[in-house]
Request: fold
Amino acid sequence: MPSDIDSAIFENAPVGLIYTEDRIIRRCNARFAVTFGYAANELEGASLAMLYPSSDEFANTGEHWTRELLEHGAYADERIMRRRDGALFWCRVRGQALDPARPLARAVWSFSDLSAERPVAVLSRRERQVGMLLVEGLTAKEIARRLEISPRTVHVHKNRLMARFGVRNSLELVRCLTAVPR
Reply:
């Protein structure tokens, strides 16, 4: 049973915090609820799927989280999430499995809203996926394996991203995808 101080720390953390069981939100703090535009009682018992831009991204992220948590015990990335009103925003996600053998069975997650630092460009789901993996430093071949597409298709999406952002190379593209507005 958590103490009053434990509850106060959880509830007043400067980032959104959740405890999940099999990707179902069992407990969340006020910052998490406000970030996504809900009341806490609307989120508790709900699937994390409602916070993703698409069901495919929810499924793919679950598979990726499972691999990373099994291998490292912790997870970290920056990704596009969806608010209650449908608005998309960049979010920093960090997770820790409570049972390393069953990583999604019980986990603690933090979510930080990055929308003030990184506005969302209108991209297709696949462009977002390729862009996020480029930011992680993956090569076209690694991205192709992760997304189960051909390296040539990765290059097509990368070239579209470069044209959309008006950049000449991968370094400039990554800089645009992670840029903090001045």
Strands lie at 16-21, 24-28, 74-82, 88-97, 107-113. The first strand starts at residue 16 and ends at 21. The chain has two domains: 4-113, 125-177.
